[in-house]
Structures are given as C-alpha cells and as structure tokens.
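Hi V.,

You were right to ask for the full record rather than a summary. Here it is.
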Amino acid sequence: SQRPPRPWSPRARASSPPTRASAPSASADTTVRMSFIFWVKSRDDANVEDLVPSFKTLNVIDPKFERAVMVIDFTKLVGPLNNPSSPEGEFIKGQRLIWKDLVDGWGYANVPGWDDNSFDINLNDAKSKAPDYLVGGKFPDLPVVELLKHKIVVMYNDDVYVPNLTSYKGVYAAIDAGVNVWLTMRAPVFGALGPVDICESSLPPAVGNYGFYFAASSYSYSGWFRHYFTLDEQKDWYSLPMRVEHFIGANSLESTKWPNLPIDTALLHERYNWNRPGLGLLWIPEVAALPEVNWMAFRARFFQSGFVVSAEPMYLFNSSYGVDHPGDVGDACLSGYDGSPVAHRVQGSYFRTVHFSFTPLAIQPDSMQIITDTVFNYLYEPDQNAPLTKKNIYRYENLSIGQR
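Predicted structure:
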C-alpha cells in the first residue's frame, strides 16, 4: 500500500489513496481484561455452613499485541516554557501530527497492509486517549491493557518537567509481557524549573527498574533554567556570555547503520514556543539550538535476576560550544556535554528497548525518518501474538546486538 500525502508534513508527496482492506482497526482489538472471582464455602465443627464465604478477585489480561505502535505523550504543556507549540491551538496537535508522519512513514514501507487507520491518533475521552496515542499526564497509572494491544510503545516527553516515575510501572509490566519500548525524552528521570544542577554517578533509588530495562547507569541534568532566572532582565540577550541552548544534533557512532541527526533550525523555530512573556526563551537566530538535552550513561553488559542485558551506543551529543563550553569554569554539570552519549539501544534476554535523550521534533525530517525506521525495525516483531512464557522468555538468547 502507498502512503497518502500530508499537507502538514515536510515529506508530503503526491500518491494514490492507500488500500484499506487488511489493516488493523480499533474494532479489531482483541486484548481484554478479565476478572475472576474465586470463593470457598466451609463448615465448622458442627457442620454449619459459613454464610459469608471467603473470596478473592483475580484480574487477568490476555495480550494479543494486535496493533503496531502506541505513543505515550508525557509532555505537560502547563506553562510558558520552551515546550512544543500546537498549530491552531489544538491540544498537542503538533506532536500528534509529527508522530503520525513518522509512524506512517515506517508502516507504509515495512508493514504489509498498512493504511491510514493503522496508527490512530484521534483523541477522545476528554482529549486524553486514542487507540494508538495516550496523553500520559492524564492518567496516574497507565492502562496496561491498552499498552498490551501494541507490539511497540513509544515513551515521549518534550518538557523540562519529568514524568511521574510511578507511571513507568505500567510500561515495565508491558515489557515483561512482551512489548518492546522506545524512550525518547528531554527529561526522562529528573526535571525541574528551579535552580537545580545534578550530576549523578548513579541513578537514584526512585527510578526503580529504569536502570534494568534501559541499561541506564548515570545521568547529567543541567538545570539550565537557573541560568535564565539569574540573569538581569534588562541585559542584552545577544551579549550574554553563555546561552543555555547548545544541542545542535546527534552524531552517529556508525554512519553506515544510523545517519547523523542535525537540528533543522526552521523546525526548531516553528515547533517550539519562543519569545513568551515571563519565562519563554527568546528566539535568537544566531544561537538556534535546543536547550535541555541532557546525557545518559549506560551499562554495556550486565547480569541481573538471571538475565543478561547489553547495550550498544548509537549517538553522541553535538554541542554548538564544542569542547569549550563556558560551563566548564565552576559548573561541572554544564561541562563535558560535547561527545557524551545521548542514545543507545538495549537487548535483554526477553526484551528490546531504545533510549534517546532528545526528541524528533526539531531533527532534520529525512534523517529522522531513517532512524525511526531503523528503531522500529529493531523493536518490531510481526509474529508477536502471544505473551511471554517459560518457553519463549529467552527469545533473544542467540541474537546479538548488531545483527539487524
């Protein structure tokens, strides 16, 4: 089938209408949650029957993984920060359309029978949920039954605020059942608006299983807004000794497998909020870089709970400052960014994940589509139609990273 043109997409092109015959739809979903009640009647020594039997309820989900991809959008959009803009003022419309284009671009090229309904982003339930798009901040606990309808889950955040880490529990449960995950966030484990700098040699205990499922070991959070708040409001922005925006892209460690991912300055200007009164960063064309892209160190290979987990680095931070970041003087959290890891992929005995410390919104579109295709092909299993069991829990036992 062919991919239809999208007027809002930089990749739009003329094509004939897609075939809709065999693609999955919301009505075809078969993953369900079932509740079972077990009770027992007993008698006492006088053979008198217990009038109120003991009982216990057991909830069971039978995952079918019948849909391809779900995106969980954790971006809060609660204040005038440097977060994504939304065309026509519609709630998170910008992000949804961008993800629609990326997922469809992969689907039409790689999944037989793909059509425009295969990735459904039309929100309902008070603008919080679609078959394949979930606004994570609207749900204290992610609905696991929705996640288990999908082969791939994308965890996306484009805000200075970190998502509620307890929300990750539903994703971990989905991974244990057979779902593979791509995490792409500017603030995956820590985020704040105040004067905070964090350079951690190890992940905090609150992160829980994050280090296991994403092979993460340490991180740096720059607290860049502190540098904004401490500025004299009357000072000329063009003459500041240091700007907090300096991520200009990600450099590939293997260009034959993954393309370099440069920032597209036109998209950076268009897709993020700038020049807002109060807290919004001013748009300065001479700077034209993305702020608050932190870096995450990883464990190349480790053993935990009887399982082997290994990680392969993919991309390094490309800073507009190069190795001469002004933060090197008296601010360790702002030093050492250029050349630090910002993306890696993980393979466990029974799961695969990919971890990006940046997001697709401002990346040059053609390059972003190529890496999206590569990530999804790494995570996607077309025949994944049954939950993990003792028989298939080692499904990647003989497959080393780099073979596909």
